[in-house]
Amino acid sequence: MDQAAASEDILLDLRNISLSFGGVKALIDISFDIRRGEVRAIIGPNGAGKSSMLNVINGFYHPQEGEVWFDGKLRGPMKPHQIARQGIARTFQNIALFRGMSTLDNLMTGRITHMHENMFWQAIWKGRAEKEELAHRERVEHIIDFLEIQSIRKTPVGKLPYGLQKRVELGRALAAESKLLLLDEPMAGMNLEEKEDMCRFVLDVHDQFGTTIALIEHDMGVVMDIADRVVVLDYGRKIGDGYPDEVRSNKDVIDAYLGVAHD
User: Fold this and answer.
1) Domain boundaries, the chain
2) Strand partners, 69
């Protein structure tokens, strides 16, 4: 692949990212990219900087050093809602749903970046606003069918078991129809059956929608099964980057996960 083709193949390019909070260095000179259409895993022990990196990608944190290139353009400091409009959606390690709202209504909030009618027309729900909302509902109903959650479409999400809440959160992120989907520990706290279901849905999202996915996950078996490439962080530094088999045999990665002391 020539250099121009390789550049077009990259959706997100993080260059020499450093992030500090006071005297604490969360990320230190980290560079890696995410290619269009791949599943890219970000792994590492607790405190490695994984969530900080995801927060940089979707604009919660602004690095003191480095550049973020998205879809071929250098990105300046932006707020999360602006980045969402650019085409980056996210789920969270701790579920962030509207607990009193139904599954359907939670998924509809994922369509906000695609709504164009002003609040007045949305409030009276006439004309173009009515047509727009019906079109968005049709998209959401497709996601409900895709995630096999028809039976809970009208149930307040606060009444759902944990595994289903995680699936609803995935659905809300899918509703945004993003170019890049960030999944922050999508299988954390799940039992084996729930993990298997979530793995299947993540792979189906990738295969059927062609969505580019970046995920943080602690279950190494899951990572090695579903990721195209893996980047490994430890104490805020990148210690490994490559295909799953390459990362699995990397001595620094093995040491980090086995707790071997660093020289």
Assistant:
1) 2-96+175-258
2) 13, 74
DSSP string, 225-254: HH-SEEEEEETTEEEEEE-HHHHHT-HHHH
Q: Per-residue pLDDT tens for 20-77? A: 998 899 999 999 999 999 999 999 988 889 999 999 998 999 999 999 999 999 998 8
CA distances from 147 to 103, 109, 154, 164, 180 (A): 12, 17, 15, 10, 19
- Those residues whose C-beta lies under 8 Å from the C-beta of residue 110, and which sit 6 or more positions away, are 89, 140, 171, 172, 173, 174, 175, 176
Superfamily of domain 2-96+175-258: P-loop containing nucleotide triphosphate hydrolases (3.40.50.300)
Give the integer Cα–Cα distance in Å for 249 and 232.
12
Can you give the pTM of this predicted structure? 0.83
Structural tokens at position 66: 């480095």
